[in-house]
Design a protein that fits this description.
The protein is mostly helical and 154 residues long. The protein has one domain. Helices cover 57% and strands 0% of the residues. It contains 9 helices and no strands. Pfam families: BACK.
Amino acid sequence: QAAVAYGQTDLQQHCLAFIEGCTAAVVQTQGFRELSDVVLARVLRSDRLAVDELDLVQAVREWAHVSSAVLEQPVPEVAALPVQELRLPLLAPSELVTLESHNQRDLLIPVESIAAAWRAHALRKGSGVPSRLCRPRRGTRPRDHHRHLEPHTK
């Protein structure tokens, strides 16, 4: 947080590398839940996060609820920026169904984003979805439909 606030790019890179190395543990910390939306969005842009997308969605949901309470703003408002970086097309159809069910309670994820993930499944490719949202992260568990998404470059 401080590295971004003070424009310390070297420190930002070191912090991101640390987060990438132990993402599953970091997303469970209080420090993760205290990140700003801008910093969280930067973290979520990384392809090297060592956590599955479904776990990342849950971590962002928890972050959004904490931020919503602290900032006294609705969940969709505080989460608008980071949620754009969630890679929903990587989720299996059964996971998307569960996600939609949870989303009815807090409206964390815009309906358009969920619809785009379903469209990627229906068309059996990532067309209509930004290519960055179809790239598996380092910690993404393989799912059958991943072979239909457009190949990603490293």
